[in-house]
Amino acid sequence: MTRQLRAVRTRQALVNAAATEFDRSGYAGAALNRVCRAAGITMGALTFHFSTKGELAAAVQAKGQTVTRAALGALPSGPAPALHRAVDMTLELARLLEEEPAVRSAARLSRELPDGDLAWMNSWEAAVQDLFSQAYRDGQLHAAVRPEDLAVLSRFLMLGAEYRARAASEQNGQEPREPGTVEEIRQMWDIIQRGICGPSSLASS
Questions:
Q1: Taking the mean position of all CA atoms in its chain, how far away is CA 189?
Q2: What is the spatial distance between Cα 135 and Cα 129, in angstroms, rounded to a whole number?
Q3: Rounded to the nearest 10 degrees, how much is the dihedral formed by the CA atoms of 162, 168, 171, 172?
Q4: Within 10 A of 187 (CB to CB), how many other CB atoms are there?
Q5: Quick check: helix, strand or coil at residue 141?
Q6: Which of 1, 57, 106, 117 is most buried by a 10 A CB count?
Q7: How much is the pLDDT for 198?
Q8: How many CB atoms lie within 10 A of CB 89?
């Protein structure tokens, strides 16, 4: 293995271990020695790659954004109505929060380290709002429903999904609670759409 490849793998291992640590303990409670133990890497190797805890947190946030953008970019962009695509996007976000420690960690660190460039919401909120705006123009929404308000609603749903997914990840082998995070968000949207949709959308649902 070349030195460069070893360095890349070491960095990846540190970021993965740090994602779990920040997800579980938050920025203030995260311990770099636990990151090193989880990654099987010395403290000297950690400080070679990341001179501060802040640098390591930024790398975790960047990974969370990358994973999120890649997953959303892979969603179908076909002829489905814009409202349905917006809901599907939030369901995919809920899945990522449920399955990806780097995404949960990025979401948590966005609140604890309010750096606008690294905020996890930057990786999805504009795309969701654009779809809601398209849904409004297409007559899918009730006339009194503002697309920007639905974007805020989506933000709160994702916050709930994050907490729900984190609690599930900390069950330590216990039987997972049903329904899972994604299904709970789906159920919430089923209820919400009864109040936000225009008559034509309800008729076709």
A1: 18
A2: 10
A3: -90
A4: 11
A5: strand
A6: 106
A7: 62
A8: 18
Task: Give the total residue count for the chain.
Answer: 205
Q: Tell me the three state secondary structure of residue 197.
A: strand
Whether the Cβ atoms of residue 172 and residue 123 lie closer than 8 Å to each other: no
Give me Rg for the CA atoms of the chain.
19
Structure tokens at 1: 């293995």
Give the whole-angstrom CA distance, residue 73 versus residue 55: 27
Residue 67: the pLDDT is 97
Q: Which of 170, 187, 171 is nearest to 179 (CA)?
A: 187
Of residues 202 and 183, which shows the higher confidence score?
183
Closest CA to 187 of 119, 91, 92: 91
Tokens of 12: 């990846």
User: What residues contact 52, with CB distance under 8 A and at least 6 apart?
Assistant: none
Phi, psi of 197 (to 5 degrees): -80, 150
Whether residue 177 has pLDDT greater than 70? no
Per-residue pLDDT, 201: 60
The pTM assigned to this predicted structure is 0.88
3 state DSSP class of 119: coil
Across 143-163, b (16+ Cβ under 10 Å) vs e yields eebebeebbebbeebbeebbe
